[in-house]
Structures are given as C-alpha cells and as structure tokens.
Amino acid sequence: MWRLPGSRAALRGVRTAVGRHTRAEAATETAAGAMERAVVRCVPSEPKLSLSFALADGSHKNMQRDQSEPLGRALSRIATNALKGHAKAAAAKKSRKNRPNASGGACAGPVPEPAAACEPVVKLYYREEAVAEDVLNVDAWQDGAVLQIGDVKYKVERNPPAFTELQLPRYIMAGFPVCPKLSLEFGDPANSLFRWYKEAKPGAAEPEGGSPSSLSPSSPFPSWTETGVNERVYTPSNADIGLRLKLHCTPGNGQRFGPSRELESVCPVEAGPGTCTFDQRHLYTKKVTDDSLIRTVSYNLLADTYAQTEFSRSVLYPYCAPYALELDYRQNLIQKELTGYNADLICLQEVDRNVFTDSLVPALEAFGLEGVFRIKQHEGLATFYRKTKFTLLSQHDISFHEALESDRLHKELLEKLVLYPSAQERVLQRSSVLQVSVLQSTKDSSKRICVANTHLYWHPKGGYIRLIQMAVALAHIRHVSCDLYPGIPVIFCGDFNSTPSTGMYHFAVNGSIPEDHEDWASNGEEERCNMSLTHVFKLKSACGEPAYTNYVGGFHGCLDYIFIDSNALEVEQVIPLPSHEEVTTHQALPSVSHPSDHIALVCDLKWK
C-alpha cells in the first residue's frame, strides 16, 4: 500500500468546512468529518460526470469522465493524478529545506532525496465491497460509496446541493438590503444556511474565544466578525460603513448539505442617501396582506439603457447628480422600495434584461416573489407574483404589431387601419409589447386572475397609435379572460403614456371611443385615421387620477394606471403617493432619494 512520507494528513487538501455554529451545520460536519469528501455530479441529460476531490499538494482536482466509461479507467486516472500530487508535494518540501535560514546560511545537513513513489492503490467501495472495474461510471459512483487512494478515504457524495452561481452586488449602502444573486443545483435557498460577517474595525478587540473567520492582528488578511444575521438577506447599518462584508453559505435541500462557499464584497459599505421618497409609503405596507387581498404595484423603473446617455444627463435630468443615475446606485433604491411594499403582484416597465436577472430576481425571490420577463427591444416588462398566494398557470405575451398583422382576433381592426396607409405604417413600426400572465390562487384553485402589463408608445403626438395599441391589448385580454379562462377577472397595469384627458384613457374607462375624437389626428391630418372602437370590459383606475405619476424637469402628469375589472374586484386601500415636497426636494425625478422618473402605484385590491 502506497503512503506519503510523513503523516496521512499531508495528502489531504483544503477541507470544505460546513460551518461550526448552527446545529445543522455541526451535524453536517460531524457526518463528513470522518473522511475527505469526493463530490460527484452525474445527471442523465449530460454524457459526462464530474468528480472533485483534494490532491496531495493541497490543490483541488476536478475530473470529467464519460458516464459510459468503465470504472477501472477512471480509477487509473485518479491514481496518476494522485502520484503527480505526491511528486509536487515532495518537490515543494525539498525546495523549502534548501532555502536560506534566518541567519542567511543554508539549512544545515544534507537533504535526503524523496523516496521514489509508486502509483497508489485506488479502489472504490460500496457497502464495504469493492466495485468491479468493469462497472460503468454512471452506476459505480453511488452516493455513500467510499473512494480509497492509498490509505486516504473519501466519502462519495453524489449530486449534493451546490451553488452554480453566487454573487454579491457591487454597490452596497447602509440601510439597504443586500440580496445575493444565487442559483442552486439539487437544492433550494429555503433549506440552505447563510451566515454574514463584516470586517473587524482596525484595532477592535477580538471576540472572546475568537471566531472561525478571525485572523490574528498581524495577519495581512482582514479579520472578520459575525454580524449575528443568519438569513439570506442582510441590511447593513451605519456602523458597517467603510467595512466590507462576507457571506458564508451552505447549500441544502432539506435532506443534506453540500459544500460551503464564501464570498466577500468588492467594495465596503457606503453611506445611504438618508430619507427616500418611499419611506413614508412603507409605513402602510409593513406586512403582507391576508389572502382576501391582492397588493398590486405598477412601476416604470427607468431603464438603464435610457438613464445612462449623455442626452439624459444633460437634457432630460440635468438636475440629478450623475452618481444617482448610475445603475448600481439606483438598484439599491429600487430593491429597497419594491421589497418594502410587501406586494403580491408587481408589474414593472422599462426593465433591462440584466437588471431582471441580476438584481430584481435575487432581491424579490428572497422576499417570496417569482417573476417572468418579456423583452421589447432594449428593455422590457416584468411581472412578479407572491409564491405563497399564486402559481403561474400560463403566459400569453404578444407584440402589438405582430398580433395586429397575423392574429385573426384583430382582423376587423386591421381592415379599418389599412384605409389609412400612413397611420398603418407608423403603427406597425412600433415595438411595444403586452405581457399577460394567468395566475391561480394557491389557497382556492377556483380563483384565477388575468394580470396584464404594458408600456404604450411614448411620443406626445402618438395618441392614435396608443389608441390602436390599447384596442389590440384589450381584444387579446378578452380572448384570454373570456375564451381561454371564461370569467376570470382582469388587472391591467402599465405606463400608458396617456393623461386622463386623452382618448386612450377615455377608451379604457368608458368602453368606447368615437371616430371623431381629436386623438385620431394627434400627429396631424396626414396620419388621421378616424375609427370607432369598443371593448367589453368595465374598467376603472384603482388609484384614481393622481396629479402626476411622472415628474421631470419639463413635464409632470399622470401616465401610469392600474386598471381593474370593477365587476369582480374592488379597491380596499390606495397607498398614498409621496408628497409634492418629497418629490421636489431635489427639484424633480429621478434624484438621490428616488430611482426613477416615475412614481410607483400601490393599492390593495379585494375579490368581490
């Protein structure tokens, strides 16, 4: 039997600790402490399995082997790797002994040549019996098997919970929740363990008994102290300003835990902006509503692709501090604002794809919401729903111009539009989309709801285009809520780019628009397209007609609405908008205390 010179521990690499402070973590470490860990990932949809274990030189070996390969070949390769690891360790030991000593001379005494190593005996055991070398890898590497390399044993863990992605936000502010972006395989966040640390302040006394992550004062590396927070989300306090954060997390699935990982924030915690426009609003939304209510939010976030232009900085928002237009800064405010509403439904407009995946999903998922995304061109729409209240039954998203041209639902409308070629061309050039999600109550399967979300064409002279987009939207929503799911109520959120005096709003709340309405000529006589339109819904604006939902230097007005089916839903409460003083503290929006040029609409709806 091959053995390394010196103690058996020399073969062991850096162990993956599974924590020392919670009972679950301690139990995990006790179970895995008797031997090293060999992690095997093997899924039917992939041709190869991966094997990960510690080498003699302290490094970690990751191997990829065909699932259909005989075990003997894999074991032979492992033996070769172990031998290389032994050779590296021996060479490093010899190099250390040849270094000059503290007095400047060479180390006394001859350095013996390391004994020539032979290839170690490598075996795989299952239930204390050696696994035959002609067994295929896919069958050989079972959970609980034991891999033996020389006299060192590794416990095989097949498909343990593991993080496939783990990331902290780059910009962290005191008073704002830090929501790590994470993805798991064979596990879930609810059954995983999290422990937050912060850098020890220079000169701070080490806690009594030390800390598993603390280092001596003379160490060139930072020392860490526990924050006492063992949850997925950590909100730094003012005492953390200037300090970096560290997250230690152990993936779990309710049955067992996988290898732990640690990551540190790139930058220290920075001071927050003080009072924000949404702080007072959060006083009305401290708790999640009961099952009879649906707290609904509609919010145009101001896409980063529009905020980060020279035109935006110098013309649209010259009053806004440049750093407050930076995405990393605004995301802190957006995350805190949205999570503080404790909403059941959140419909967002102007959502960058990377903002959805890297910021909104991690933050809102940590607070119990799940989301779907629909791209437009450079940005899109997102709808989030509370998982304890709703499940997603189906999605029915459309692009307005594609649906108008190809869906027979809109045949009559298209026939009217083709009579006006200039208007038709302009309408079909627009990229606006409609996101439609059908949700079902988790408590009562008979309760379903159609949630629609849109962002209509923006141009001030595009009134007739918005009318036609709204007609397409309502016809499509009628198809979903009447034909596909007969009788389900509708919530229709969005930035409609229309004030209450416009034809679009008149059409929405009155159910019809006459052909002589002035908006049919909103861009002049050349594009006039007179037509009468109707729809079947009885819609009302749940939040009424606020003085404004958009407030920028050159304009303020009400452009955003939460339309509800008043036959099936009623308004329980409208969360007050920020005061005019709060909105104009920094002249207009966005600002250091408000992340968008729009204001979120928030209301509690009730089933009739």
TrEMBL record:
<dbReference type="InterPro" id="IPR050410">
    <property type="entry name" value="CCR4/nocturin_mRNA_transcr"/>
</dbReference>
<keyword id="KW-0540">Nuclease</keyword>
<keyword id="KW-0597">Phosphoprotein</keyword>
<feature type="compositionally biased region" description="Low complexity">
    <location>
        <begin position="211"/>
        <end position="223"/>
    </location>
</feature>
<feature type="domain" description="Endonuclease/exonuclease/phosphatase">
    <location>
        <begin position="298"/>
        <end position="598"/>
    </location>
</feature>
<dbReference type="GO" id="GO:0004535">
    <property type="term" value="F:poly(A)-specific ribonuclease activity"/>
</dbReference>
<keyword id="KW-0460">Magnesium</keyword>
<keyword id="KW-0507">mRNA processing</keyword>
<keyword id="KW-0809">Transit peptide</keyword>
<feature type="region of interest" description="Disordered">
    <location>
        <begin position="86"/>
        <end position="109"/>
    </location>
</feature>
<dbReference type="GO" id="GO:0000288">
    <property type="term" value="P:nuclear-transcribed mRNA catabolic process, deadenylation-dependent decay"/>
</dbReference>
<keyword id="KW-0479">Metal-binding</keyword>
<dbReference type="InterPro" id="IPR005135">
    <property type="entry name" value="Endo/exonuclease/phosphatase"/>
</dbReference>
<dbReference type="Pfam" id="PF21171">
    <property type="entry name" value="PDE12-like_N"/>
</dbReference>
<dbReference type="InterPro" id="IPR036691">
    <property type="entry name" value="Endo/exonu/phosph_ase_sf"/>
</dbReference>
<keyword id="KW-0269">Exonuclease</keyword>
<feature type="domain" description="2',5'-phosphodiesterase 12-like N-terminal">
    <location>
        <begin position="160"/>
        <end position="270"/>
    </location>
</feature>
<feature type="compositionally biased region" description="Basic residues">
    <location>
        <begin position="86"/>
        <end position="99"/>
    </location>
</feature>
<dbReference type="InterPro" id="IPR048821">
    <property type="entry name" value="PDE12-like_N"/>
</dbReference>
<protein>
    <recommendedName>
        <fullName>2',5'-phosphodiesterase 12</fullName>
        <ecNumber>3.1.13.4</ecNumber>
    </recommendedName>
</protein>
<dbReference type="Pfam" id="PF03372">
    <property type="entry name" value="Exo_endo_phos"/>
</dbReference>
<dbReference type="GO" id="GO:0005759">
    <property type="term" value="C:mitochondrial matrix"/>
</dbReference>
<dbReference type="GO" id="GO:0006397">
    <property type="term" value="P:mRNA processing"/>
</dbReference>
<keyword id="KW-0496">Mitochondrion</keyword>
<dbReference type="GO" id="GO:0046872">
    <property type="term" value="F:metal ion binding"/>
</dbReference>
<feature type="region of interest" description="Disordered">
    <location>
        <begin position="202"/>
        <end position="223"/>
    </location>
</feature>
<comment type="similarity">
    <text>Belongs to the CCR4/nocturin family.</text>
</comment>
<keyword id="KW-0378">Hydrolase</keyword>
